[in-house]
Request: fold
Amino acid sequence: TPVAVLAARLDAPREPNFEFQLRRDVWRISHIVHQLLAEARAEEQTLPLDELVDVAASARAMVDDAALLAIRDGREIEYLGPSGAVFVRGNKVAIEAVVANLIDNALRAEPSGGSVAIRVNESATIEVIDHGAGVAEEDRRAIFEPFWRMSEGASGAGLGLAIAKELVSKLKGRIWVENTPGGGATFKVSLPRAVL
Reply:
């Protein structure tokens, strides 16, 4: 979908924010490529899964990367968590691919003018919180299956959450979704803490 959007944008008359839109398209394409590469390397067992990774720093970096896009699209994004490190054993590229995917989904679900929050706690659980339509109870398992989309008109190929689940599984973690109090979806990723 991001490639089709980019191609359509290049063929359309130039808008005042044309350069920003191109940068957003490139960010989304880059994000998908990173996810696919991380999954392929994990599948081939060439992805090191025993690195010492600060998930708080990784989550903050992904929030920083998405901030300009969020603001431009009329949304806010914030990081909530410890100022210090929260270490896990895993892979930085894979963890950041998972978090970036969840942030991208949350920003698309969040109503204009709303705010997405990324929370990291001391137990190495990452939460990505939006206030959109949420995920129905009966869809909570299906959303992690390849090519699943909420509706035919939904953007994306339906691969992001499936890749995220696969990567989290390789990292010996867990990913799931809950309701956001007041409406919306909260995606959670729990990773095993590193013993230092």
Summary: The beta strands are 51-54, 76-80, 87-90, 115-120, 125-129, 174-179, 185-190.
